[in-house]
Every structure is written in structure tokens, then in C-alpha cells.
Amino acid sequence: xxxxxxxxxFLKLASAMTALAAVPxxxxxxxxxxxxxxxxxxxxxATLAKYVRMWGGNVxxxxxxxxxxxxxxxxxxxxxxxxxxxxxxxxxxxxxKANHGVTVMQGRAxxxxxxxxxxxxxxxxxxxxxxxxxxxxSPGIDFVPAAGNWSPNLTPHAWQAGPQTxxxxxxxxxxxxxxxxxxxxxxxxYRCPPGPYERACVVADYLKRKGRTGAKVIVLDANxxxxxxxxxxxxxxxxxxxxxxxxxxxxxxxxxxxxxRSIVTSAKTVNNAKVLNYIPNQRAGAIAAxxxxxxxxxxxxxxxxxxxxxxxxxxxxxxxxxVPSSDGKAVPKSGHMANSxxxxxxxxxxxxxxxEAPDEDIATSSAxxxxxxxxxxxxxxxxxxxxxIFDASGNVKGKGMHRVDxxxxxxxxxxxxxxxxxxIWADSMFAxxxx
Length: 435
Ligand SMILES: Cc1cc2nc3c(=O)[nH]c(=O)nc-3n(C[C@H](O)[C@H](O)[C@H](O)COP(=O)(O)OP(=O)(O)OC[C@H]3O[C@@H](n4cnc5c(N)ncnc54)[C@H](O)[C@@H]3O)c2cc1C
Hints:
Blueprint: H1 7-16, E1 35-39, H2 43-56, E2 60-65, E3 70-71, H3 76-80, E4 90-91, H4 94-100, E5 103-106, E6 108-113, E7 118-123, E8 126-131, E9 134-137, E10 141-144, E11 147-149, H5 163-173, E12 180-185, H6 195-209, E13 216-221, H7 230-240, E14 245-248, E15 253-257, E16 262-265, E17 269-270, E18 275-277, E19 281-284, E20 299-300, E21 307-308, E22 311-316, E23 321-322, H8 335-353, E24 363-371, E25 377-390, E26 396-408, H9 416-434
Parallel strand pairs: 1-2, 1-9, 2-5, 9-22, 11-15, 12-13, 12-18, 13-14, 20-23
Antiparallel strand pairs: 3-4, 6-7, 7-8, 10-19, 15-16, 16-17, 21-22, 24-25, 25-26
């Protein structure tokens, strides 16, 4: 169903960034403060750390991230085209420390001792062992490389923002007329369903605006068709950017040679592209991948707690987790969804400290705004509530997140208002997760 929630209604709702979790009882000062250790300071981990401290009272929270700050993938396609500076998407952990009392440790989580309730972190001053009462993992994604000779240092994916974003930006800027930019869309499920189509659009728009006559964008999609906002992106490919974007479905990647920027897929082979933006298939971030994985490479969780069967004190949120849903389509992997999941997980952890059962009256939501040109954007929102989930025949198949509302921009709703709203929404996300 389309447009059951319009963009304005959604933005109003999203600016509150609420998950329907009730604020739980605070852990009393008299008790020994329980320890929550969080891996990953992206949208999932940062929100979790903030909200456990804000709602939990006497709880020690340590946030571990490999980097000194987080570079947001949200808006990063606009850094690739030079429309925004890198500083616009660089999010510091300072407010989590100053405003919320989160302890931040820079280092890479390398091992979990689930029996001993400890996490080992590799830091510049050696390994540190952190004891925890609850461990929350939000490490994002890792990549499943294709066969061949793949090096992201030569052919950037830019699907984790930071140096990869700068590399792709520089390669795009070096394109001339008649050059070819080749990119892949990974097999679903992957991070940010509309993201690759958005990238194709902003790259095509950039090439046209910079007068790179005859330059092309070839989109090799491993899926059978456009996986998100097919109407808006179909119109963008066939009308707005007609003659620049060539869309190729069912293109399973068979091999990649980064040194020659060549790619072989089941539908098309391209040799010696000027830019090869190979975005590989994805799986749970490496530290989460030490836990049991489902058939698509992500960690199946209980949507009431984001806990894992047989590991009662370990939770996985954000892109690394897999949440059961009604229609068999995965709950989307987005920063907005990671933010929602973090609040539900935070609430459930605090309830466990105070002896309360997890709240079942919960909802999650996701939003993606996708620029189509340097002045217009489309948008997509999806909302879920907890309850019965159904199989294809409509029979109850268990409990999970039931999709209640999908709103997406029709082709004629791709406009300048949405482009402006994108920044309002993104700034709300950034503030709710990091300030
Ligand atoms: C181009 C693009 C556009 C997007 N646009 C949107 C959008 O419009 N809306 C939206 O909602 N989402 C969007 N997304 C998706 C969004 O960025 C992700 O879904 C979101 O970042 C997931 O959050 P996360 O916490 O799971 O992981 P991440 O945000 O990736 O955070 C993971 C963090 O964990 C750290 N880490 C990983 N492993 C370790 C370890 N072992 N030890 C220590 N630290 C570790 C990393 O350094 C990183 O900081 C977009 C993504 C892309 C690529």
C-alpha cells in the first residue's frame, strides 16, 4: 500500500524519533551499578549507550568503537558528489560523554567470552578485557567478496563512510566525457535498500552538471528488479537521467578485477571501467559474526529484547541483526531502524535490571530520503508493530514485527521540498543518536 503516511506526517513523527517503549524504572543508586558494554558507535550503538544512561540511572555504560568518531553513511552520497563536506557527516562521541556520562573507549572488539561475560578489546595500548552484565553489538556490516582480485583500495565500495567516501569522490571527480562509472547493487538483504539507486542518480546528475558529455552510469543489480521505491527510481532512470543510466537486473557478480576495474556478472561484463564502484554482498559485522548466523549471514534476534537464543546477556541491534517480520522481507537495514531498535533494547535491558518483563507494546520505523538530483529527493518510510506475523497465505507463523505502513514517494512527488526535508530529518537523527 502506498502513501498511507505522507512525507509531512512522517517527518513530524520521525522528528520525535520515538520507539513506543515506555520509559522504564531507573536502577537505584544503592545497588552496585550494572555494566553495559556496547560495541559500535554508529546509529545503533550510540543511541543504545545514550538511552541506557538517560533512562537507566545507576548503570555504567562503556561504548567501544574502532574509530575516534563515527562517519555517517546517511548523506554520504552527497559527499561523494562534493555537495557536502566530510565534516557534515562526521559525528563526535563528545556529547555522549559530557551530556550522558558514557565512557568511550577507542579500540577494536576482537573476542567475546560468553561464559565469562567479558569482551576483549584491542587498543593502541594493548588488549583490554571488559566485564559486562549485558553486551550489545552494533558493528554494522561486513562484506562477502566476489571471486577474483578485489581490493577496495582500488575500487571503493563507499558503503562504510570515511576514507572510502573520499576515494570514490576523487575517482568520480577525475572522470571525463564518455567515461563509464560502473556500480553494483548487492543481493538483498543489504544496508539501506534505496541507497545504491540513490547513488546512481546523484552520480548521473553530477556527470550531467559537470558537462561530462557521453559519460555513463551502468547499474549492475544482483536482484531481479529495483528493490526499493521502484516507481521513483524507475522514473529517475528512464526519464530524469535517461541516456546516462543503464540499469541491468539479474546481474550476479561472478568475478571482480580491481586492478583493471573489470567485472563479470551473469548479465553483463564490463572491462576497464573508469570507475568501478563494486558494493559487495553483505553479512553481519565481524564481531557479531562470531555468534550463530541465519542463512543470509545475519544474527537472528528476539525483537522484544534484541537478545539471542542461548546467549541471554548478549544483544545484537542495527544492520547486523535479522528481525522476523510478516511478509518474509527483512526489516530494513537503516540508521533510522537501528535507532529504533536501540531504544527497545535499552528499555529491555533496564527492565531486566529491575526484574520487569520486556514491554510488548513496541513499534519500530525506518526512513530513507534519496536525492535524485542536486535539488530533488524521493523518500520512503516503513513502520512496524510487534505482534503476530503471517505467512504468504495469511496464517499466523509466530511473533515478530508486523509491517503496518509503507509510505513512499511516487514519481511526481520527487521534489525540492523533500530535498529540504531530508536535512531536517537527518539532523533529527544525528541529534537523537549523538547529542
Ligand atoms: C549511501 C548510504 C545512504 C544511507 N542512507 C540512509 C538513510 O537515508 N536513512 C537511514 O536510516 N539509513 C541510511 N543508510 C543506512 C545506515 O547508514 C545504516 O543502516 C546504519 O549506519 C546502521 O547502523 P549500525 O549501528 O548498525 O552500524 P554502523 O552505523 O555502521 O556503525 C558501526 C560502528 O561499529 C564500529 N565497529 C565495527 N566493528 C567493530 C569492532 N569489532 N570493534 C569496535 N568497533 C567496531 C564501526 O567503526 C562503526 O562506527 C545509508 C547507508 C548508505 C551506505
